[in-house]
Design goal:
The protein is an all-alpha fold. 45% of the residues lie in helices and 3% in strands. It has one domain (20-128). The longest helix is centred in the C-terminal third of the chain and has 17 residues, at 106-122. The mean pLDDT is 86. GO terms for molecular function: ATP hydrolysis activity.
Length: 141
């Protein structure tokens, strides 16, 4: 039996009233983030328990956190970039809006976009379906 237009509208309206699940950035990453073979030496699902020291940082970047500024100072090659990419993925998926990622030079920004952000988008269906062919987030998904 086909649904009437009124029933489809009502179902969509009621679904729109449901709040988004209250995920932290680390929970989102554990559920949705895939590390590509291009960007990671260990491709496959992201596991926060592999880098537990990043959990607090990611959770402080979550909308439910009262923290307004996050500063992380620790050694290189310990996951800060991936932590930031998890945040970007979360924002695209659950809270789309303007976001600026700054790099020291235009060339470094292009390389970061191609080597890091591109694989992030390509490896996640939830993100890929929310980004257009130019890399801009579709604001009304």
């Amino acid at each position: 039996m086909a649904l009437s237009a009124a029933q489809i509208y009502e179902d969509a309206f009621l679904q729109g009233l449901m709040p988004d699940p209250r995920l932290t950035v680390s929970e989102w990453a554990d559920e949705h983030r895939m590390l590509s073979s291009v960007a990671s030496g260990e491709p496959g699902p992201w596991r926060t328990d592999r880098t537990p020291y990043l959990k607090e940082i990611m959770d402080c970047l979550s909308p439910s956190s009262p923290i307004e500024r996050v500063v992380a100072m620790f050694g290189s090659q310990l996951g800060k970039t991936e932590c930031g990419l998890n945040w970007v993925g979360y924002v695209i998926h659950h809270a789309p809006g303007p976001m600026l990622m700054v790099q020291p030079t235009v060339e470094m920004a292009k390389r970061y976009s191609k080597q890091r952000v591109g694989p992030l988008i390509e490896s996640s269906e939830e993100i890929r379906e929310r980004v257009n062919e130019n890399g801009a987030v579709k604001m009304h998904h």
